[in-house]
Design goal:
de novo design (two linked rop proteins); mainly alpha; 127 residues
Length: 127
Amino acid sequence: MNEGQKYGGFRDLKVYQLSFQLALEIFDLTKSFPKEEKYSLVDQIRRSSRSVSSNISEARYKRKYPKAFVSKLIDVAGEAGETEVWIEFSFNHGYIDKDKREYLLAKYTEVGKMLNSMINHPEKFCH
């Protein structure tokens, strides 16, 4: 979205597009994790990564009320932060390599910056 452009919908947001893509990448990546992680680390990282984009879509329906919109985006940022922790666990257990860790963390930092901008300027998204 360009400066001054009205918010059309969550699918138009770069933060939604990036977070959705990252959730897909994490899903594929975790297919190679050990079976004993299926009901712990795999479930947690998949849930939190998916929650980022799904909660962005929920925030869209709260934009009539800027405080509710911001509150939901703060929840989104929390899910992104949780995903970063699971990425660290994945790396420390040897399930992902350093390059993948750095790539994912850099992308989640980008997501966080976009979310913070939305949180700090809800007027660009609320009506």
